[in-house]
Specification:
By secondary structure, the protein is α/β, with parallel strands linked by helices. 36% of the residues lie in helices and 14% in strands. It folds into 2 domains: 21-214 and 259-269 and 279-344, Glycoside hydrolase/deacetylase (TIM Barrel); 216-257, no CATH class.
Length: 352
Amino acid sequence: MSVQAIAATTAPGIQPVAIRSDMPPTLFVIVDTEEEFDWSAPFSRGNTSVRAMSKIDRLQTILDRRGICPTYVIDYPVSHQRDGHALLAEFASDGRCRIGAHLHPWVTPPHVEEVTRTNSFGCRLGAAVETEKIRVLRDDIGEHLGVRPTVFKAGRYGFGPTTAAALEALDFDIDVSVNPRYDYTGEGGPSFGAFDTKPFFFGRNRRLLEIPLSTDYTGVAAGTVAPSLHRALSATALQPFRAIGVAARLGIVNRIMLSPEGNSLAEMQTLTRSLLARGVRTFSLTLHSPSVEPGCTPYVRSVQDLNEFLARIDAYCAFFLDELGGVASTPEEFRRTLPGHGRDSTLEERRS
């Protein structure tokens, strides 16, 4: 992926992060912390239930045991309702987690746009509306959790140039929205087909840090041919033959997101080893908070699904920390290790 490709897709001022050759594999856990809703139904402003948040300790307990401090990027229904944020506030005050912001536009004031699939991508709302929604969310998190979020993740990966400008204007430091190798243009969203998993600085002053999701191709065709081959196998005419699944099982090509949702432990391990071999040192394990309660996401429908889901998270963390000798960190901690890009130095630069 070229610097020019990134610049054309997002915002000016792209600068790849120089990773030290002796840096150990570093794991971030990013939790999309949000309301429950039917993922197959149209979006609705009425979907604001956060009942699953009363069970978020099921995840936190596993991470506590492994010494991992997750980042809960929370949306407006979570931040605005005590049932949504009560446990998170407790975890954060104890230093057991970090709090970021996660924009679901359809349930975040101001409610001025039509609720459509296209408008579920924040970057399609227009700069003024998108910026105001992020500001409202940021301030609501501050009011109810006493935390100033500096990490942002766009709901449905709806990140674009206007998002970058909004984050700069609202004093965020880090974005974790980019989902490499995915194209959402068919739904009206952005395309990240040209992105890989390596972090970079961006924005007009190259102050914002992007930590992409850990999504990429594996298999014998995981080189430059992978995107076109995967697209070809995804063609509508081949769907009855489940060509994508066959290619994955045969080890030809597989697109894997580092997530316990929809991926096996073996797939997550394969992706991690493949990225390590390519020189990647930062890994983002991502999931949705409603998955801690059966029936709230497509990935966890039963108690058995829940037990397997939690066991998969635990087993992956053990694999990463013990077998690979990796370490756990947070996006903020990682940013502070990068020379000249800590928040203190940034503030000094602004004063000068």
